[in-house]
Write a structure and sequence with these properties.
By secondary structure, the chain is an alpha+beta fold. The chain has a single domain (2-110), classed as Alpha-Beta Plaits (2-Layer Sandwich). The chain is 20% helix and 37% strand. The strands form 2 sheets. Strands 2-5-1-6 form a 4-stranded antiparallel beta sheet, covered by helices on one side. α1 packs antiparallel against α2 (70-81). The radius of gyration is 17 Å and the shape is elongated.
């Protein structure tokens, strides 16, 4: 099993969720986060004062999947979340050692 963590632009969330649902993803966790990478933030002017926005709003999506689904899900996220501009995000894949569904006690593949 793997944990796929994708960090994407906020306005892409609905499109990504819909596309992942179409390829069989049954659940995910979504978190509003802030961060920066190569974008490095930007400056804005508010009421005549200039200030730096160092951390940009992003969406973090966590999906626990079986090993045979990883490539398909990554391809789907890349296709849908790509705008071709800096700041489109990143995808991280990490191993999951053990998963337990709290309600039923099911473990590992059956819990996902």
């Amino acid at each position: 099993m793997k944990m796929i963590t994708a960090v994407i632009k906020p306005f892409k969330l609905d499109d990504v969720r819909e596309a992942l649902s179409d390829v069989g993803v049954q659940g995910m966790t979504v978190t509003e986060v802030k961060g920066f990478g190569r974008q490095k933030g930007h400056t804005e002017i508010y009421r005549g004062a200039e200030y730096a926005v160092d951390f940009l709003p992003k969406i973090r999506i966590d999906i626990a999947v079986q090993d045979d689904q990883v490539d398909k899900i990554i391809e789907t996220i890349i296709q849908v979340a790509n705008t071709g501009k800096t700041g489109d995000g990143k995808i991280f894949v990490t191993p999951l050692e053990h998963v337990v569904r709290i309600r039923t006690g099911e473990t590992d593949d059956t819990a996902v």
